[in-house]
């Protein structure tokens, strides 16, 4: 087991690492749990000072449980590491596609982070959460005219992805102040992660092709309606390799130099997100510091060589800020043993609240919250409750003997779980609580059956 702690930071003794109680050891899964996780005297898992079993009694099941301390710690770690290693200005943006809701945006904002949004809906949430428009960066490869108008009116930074968008922006901006944009460029840098979450390679739907660079810079430099302030790239997600982001940083400085030759003074450089996290014992991602430091160094060195002033450096982590801060608690129900094959243990959620296993074959680990020190004697497959054979959350989970009513906690569910949740089979989406110092606040109300039919319309002629 590597010594990666749950924010993905490997610095035992760092000011950000609260000591865990050694008497309440919860290894081997300790590192996958939020920082405040411990086992209490009832042998029950506690997060943020709240007993998970009690939370489920109070708020229902399934339940997303978000640990405020772990989230804030990761925000601080990113923010302060940039301050430590980068001599210019820096701004960390939370990639809110990982989990976009009012409370999470408000926490990131209160830690000094800006917000990366990827749709009008995410933008609306960030603005409603009180995030200042100048700290919002709006991404997307096919923003609608209505979304662009909304973004222009709100005064946020728009990360222009393609020619159609640039031309639409020029058209829409004519009556207004010049629109503040960054250009998203495809770097042609590959990395090893799931095919669906690679974005930096040339065959990507995102960003301007590098072959278009001269034409794009020429066009942008001639448009009074556009105030182009920087460049952006994002090469993918759940990345463990270190070299791709170094290469990206070096390449992006070359883009700044090239832009200067077109009379464009670009002052912002946004390297995107992508740092991976520990989902299982075999994952060994770089720490936040190991990711941030070389990026800062490469940019500083390259700017010295190119004789460029240091740009404002931005990045957009999502997963590595929030994944480990959250667990999902489920209630165990039925089970089925197929002799010599496997035992299925079913829970009251599944692919609707965590679509990652069925979408990306993602692997998760789980513990039984009300039996934390029971011996791990069973190898079972955790099945969801959807009418779909592929609805399996974990294959071959090592658990204590379970019975209906036990609380299964799946770890590392903060990123791309709620944000990708659906109502498949018309399951209401779970509630989410924010826990800190023994207090639990509801941040997402559980959907009801009424919510499920709220948008349904029954034509008069079908009414019986
Ligand atoms: N910036 C941009 C432009 C992005 O597209 C993304 C993620 C990020 C930042 C944040 O990347 P992160 O730090 O979270 O790796 N649904 C997939 C992940 C899709 C990532 C999409 N873009 C999953 O569940 O693994």
Give the secondary structure arrangement, pairings included:
Blueprint: E1 38-39, E2 45-47, E3 50-51, H1 52-59, E4 63-67, H2 68-85, E5 90-95, H3 102-110, E6 114-117, H4 120-128, E7 136-138, H5 145-154, E8 157-160, H6 163-173, E9 179-184, H7 213-221, E10 226-232, H8 243-260, E11 268-270, H9 288-306, E12 312-315, H10 319-322, E13 326-338, E14 342-347, H11 356-360, E15 366-368, E16 378-383, E17 392-399, E18 407-411, E19 431-436, E20 439-444, H12 449-452
Parallel strand pairs: 4-19, 5-6, 5-12, 6-7, 7-8, 8-9, 9-10, 10-11, 11-12, 14-16
Antiparallel strand pairs: 1-2, 2-3, 4-13, 13-14, 13-18, 15-18, 16-17, 19-20
Helix pairs in contact: 2-9, 5-6, 8-9
Bound molecules: ligand LLP.
**Spatial shape:** globular
By CATH, the topology of the domain at 139-316 is TIM Barrel
- State the oligomer: single chain
CATH domain class name of the domain at 139-316? Alpha Beta
CATH superfamily assignment of the domain at 139-316? Alanine racemase
Please outline what is shown here:
Residues 1-22 are annotated as: Disordered. By secondary structure, this protein is α/β, with parallel strands linked by helices.
């Amino acid at each position: 087991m590597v010594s990666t702690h749950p924010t993905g930071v490997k610095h035992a003794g760092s000011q950000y690492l609260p000591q865990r109680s050694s008497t309440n050891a919860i290894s081997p899964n300790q590192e996958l749990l939020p920082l405040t996780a411990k086992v209490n005297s009832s042998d029950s898992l506690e997060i943020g000072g709240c007993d998970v079993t009690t939370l489920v009694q109070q708020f229902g099941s399934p339940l997303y449980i978000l640990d405020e301390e772990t989230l804030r710690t990761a925000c601080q770690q990113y923010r302060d590491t940039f301050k430590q290693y980068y001599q210019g200005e820096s701004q960390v943006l939370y990639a809110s596609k990982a989990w976009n809701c009012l409370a999470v945006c408000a926490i990131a904002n209160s830690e000094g982070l800006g917000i990366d949004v990827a749709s009008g809906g995410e933008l609306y949430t960030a603005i409603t959460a009180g995030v200042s428009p100048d700290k919002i960066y709006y991404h997307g490869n096919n923003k609608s005219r209505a979304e662009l108008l909304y973004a222009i009116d709100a005064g946020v930074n728009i990360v222009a992805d393609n020619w159609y968008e640039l031309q639409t922006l020029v058209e829409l901006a004519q009556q207004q102040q010049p629109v503040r944009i960054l250009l998203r460029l495809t770097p042609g840098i590959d990395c090893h992660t799931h095919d669906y979450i690679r974005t930096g390679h040339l065959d990507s739907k995102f960003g301007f092709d590098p072959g278009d660079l001269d034409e794009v810079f020429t066009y942008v430099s001639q448009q009074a309606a556009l105030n182009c302030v920087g460049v952006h790239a994002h090469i993918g997600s759940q990345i463990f390799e270190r070299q791709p982001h170094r290469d990206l940083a070096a390449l992006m400085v070359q883009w700044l130099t090239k832009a200067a030759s077109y009379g464009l003074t670009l002052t912002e450089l946004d390297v995107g997100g992508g740092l991976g996290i520990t989902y299982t014992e075999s994952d060994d991602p770089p720490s936040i510091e190991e990711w941030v430091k070389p990026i800062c160094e490469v940019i500083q060195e390259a700017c010295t060589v190119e004789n460029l002033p240091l740009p404002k450096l931005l990045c957009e982590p999502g997963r590595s800020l929030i994944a480990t801060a959250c667990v999902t608690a489920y209630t165990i129900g039925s089970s089925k043993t197929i002799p010599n094959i496997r035992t299925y243990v079913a829970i009251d959620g599944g692919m609707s609240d965590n679509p990652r296993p069925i979408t990306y074959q993602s692997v998760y680990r789980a513990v039984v919250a009300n039996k934390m020190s029971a011996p791990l004697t069973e190898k079972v497959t955790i099945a969801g409750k959807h009418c779909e054979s592929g609805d399996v959350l974990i294959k071959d989970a090592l658990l204590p003997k379970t019975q209906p009513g036990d609380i299964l906690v799946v770890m590392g569910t903060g990123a791309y779980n709620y944000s990708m949740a659906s109502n498949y089979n018309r399951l209401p989406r779970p509630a989410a609580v924010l826990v800190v110092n023994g207090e639990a606040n509801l941040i997402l109300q559980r959907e009801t059956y009424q919510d499920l039919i709220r948008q349904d319309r029954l034509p008069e002629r079908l009414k019986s």
